[in-house]
Design goal:
about 500 residues; globular; 25 helices; mainly alpha; two-stranded antiparallel ribbon; single chain
Length: about 500
């Protein structure tokens, strides 16, 4: 048994080393270690111990630990290849639907290109357009562009309609008679989700009274943790849910591994140069989305210019397509071009980035933290996938919690023939961005990062319905229900989540 454990540890270590060597920050890290080896603090006769001590004193040990922390959380997870998928897999239909949805979205984008006579992979900008874009880079709200013929490729409602139309393998009861499952429930999907007891265990830190420590005490904790530069400690601190605003951006950067280095600045400049050099249909879609959402929002319109910069560069970033793990499934048929980032802009995508405008003054710092957050969380909410933190799992968790803990509300929706998920889906898919006031949205996202889980979205959606249950039970139309839930300006995230987790 010990030999097997040693072999497993050795295999993991070798995998980590090989992966670290592929990272952008490997070379500067390796150079710093080489300098230490040649320094007087390292004794050739006791190389192992003295070098280890020198690495600690130089702060490189923490940097290496943070690198491993981020790798273990993401890049070392095995990817599923098409040849490995079992056709008898009960989730095969869902994986296939994910690929088909992605192809459908790309097809729609390509159709729009054909309709507007634009090249699907972009075309060189004419010099006058490039000069105007460059001159107005810091004030892109003044950049002249005709958007009359452009429309969002898809919205939350479109992906929800696809999810509700999915039909999985028919389940058979013990008496061998087929069980009819209402098409608008997700109970036929065989994805494991937690019950309230398991969620309470996962979020147990939120039920402790010290979560509400005084502001001065919390400021001191933040200062000490940031001085340590230790990503896991930063993540644990975010679990308290009352992060002081001045420290939030730095804490998020450590948890997401998004601190900006010299090679990141070079990468940003290349993305900007690509935007200036190439005219792409996604540019129009980005402008259209910001004008339809953030520009009309009292909380975000002041960030319009920086959002244009961030989303335009995001659309050109090929590293995003490399880092996002999409569903793999062999699908026959024509393939369609996608933007360089692999992400087709949808209605509301800019609201994910808008939140970060409250954390960073620099567009570059904002960009890389937003990008890391999108890759780890947002893409799971905006694609059809089988990930335990994906939108399907989050929807399934919502419905099971509603049936179990709010049976009256569930029955009320059933009697009205209204799918409960239709009421909250836009909240879930956008992680409440654009729906909650910024200060409360940041608290909610603190918890997402602190517990590394999107399940908090379902918990929060349920407690909002519970909180407004009396009003919901008195109306009998979808419009009336949506009207009751439209204004979340008075909602306080932390006490409501704590209430949801402490219920019987």
């Amino acid at each position: 048994m010990e030999e097997l454990q040693d072999a497993s540890i050795h295999h993991t270590a070798a995998k980590l080393i090989n992966t670290i060597k592929t990272l952008k920050n490997y070379e500067p890290l390796y150079e710093n270690v080489q300098k230490l080896v040649c320094s007087p603090s390292v004794d050739r006769n006791d190389m192992c111990n003295t070098l280890e001590e020198a690495i600690k004193n130089a702060g490189l040990e923490t940097e290496i630990r943070n690198i491993i922390f981020h790798l273990v959380r993401s890049k070392l997870k095995p990817e599923e290849k098409p040849s490995q998928i079992n056709i008898n897999d009960p989730l095969a239909y869902l994986k296939r639907a994910g690929v088909q949805w992605d192809r459908r979205v790309r097809k729609s984008l390509n159709a729009m290109c054909s309709e507007l006579k634009m090249a699907s992979q972009g075309q060189p900008r004419i010099s006058t357009d490039r000069d105007e874009l460059l001159s107005k880079w810091d004030e892109l709200s003044n950049y002249t562009i005709d958007l009359a013929n452009y429309r969002p490729v898809y919205a939350p409602k479109d992906i929800l309609d696809v999810l509700l139309s999915l039909k999985g393998p028919t389940k058979a009861a013990e008496n061998t008679e087929f069980v009819q499952v209402p098409k608008w429930e997700f109970s036929h999907i065989s994805l494991p989700v937690k019950n309230l007891f398991e969620l309470r265990n996962h979020y147990s830190d939120l039920l402790r009274t010290e979560s509400y420590a005084g502001s001065s005490d919390m400021n001191l904790q933040c200062q000490r943790v940031l001085e340590s530069k230790h990503a896991p400690l930063c993540q644990h601190l975010l679990r308290k849910g009352n992060t002081p605003a001045p420290y939030r951006g730095a804490l998020w950067s450590f948890v997401l591994g998004s601190h900006v280095n010299s090679f990141d600045i070079e990468h940003w400049n290349r993305l900007k140069a690509n935007v200036l050099a190439t005219d792409h249909i996604v540019d129009k879609l980005v402008f259209k989305d910001i004008q339809l959402t953030a520009s009309n929002d009292d909380q975000y319109f002041v960030f319009e210019d920086v959002l244009y910069q961030v989303l335009l560069c995001f659309s050109r970033d090929t590293e995003i397509a490399q880092m996002i793990q999409f569903e793999h499934y062999p699908i026959k048929g024509k393939s369609y071009e996608a933007p360089p980032s692999g992400v087709v802009p949808f209605h509301g995508i800019c609201m994910f980035a808008a939140t970060f405008c409250y954390l960073f003054d620099s567009p570059i710092n904002l960009y890389f933290t937003f990008r890391a957050f999108y890759i780890r969380y947002c893409h799971r909410l905006t694609t059809i996938n089988t990930h335990p933190q994906g939108i399907v799992s989050i929807c399934l968790l919502f419905e099971k919690l509603l049936q179990t803990h709010e049976p009256q509300l569930w029955s009320h929706f059933r009697e009205l023939q209204i799918q409960p998920i239709r009421v909250v889906f836009k909240w879930l898919m956008r992680a409440f961005s654009g729906h909650l006031p910024p200060d409360q949205l940041l608290v909610l996202w603190d918890l997402i990062l602190g517990f590394d889980s999107l399940e908090i979205l379902s918990i929060f959606a349920i407690i909002i319905l519970s909180f407004r249950k009396e009003s919901l039970m008195q109306v009998n139309s979808l419009d009336s229900i949506e009207a009751i839930l439209a204004d979340l300006s008075s909602v306080q995230v932390l006490p409501l989540v704590q209430l949801a987790l402490s219920r019987d």
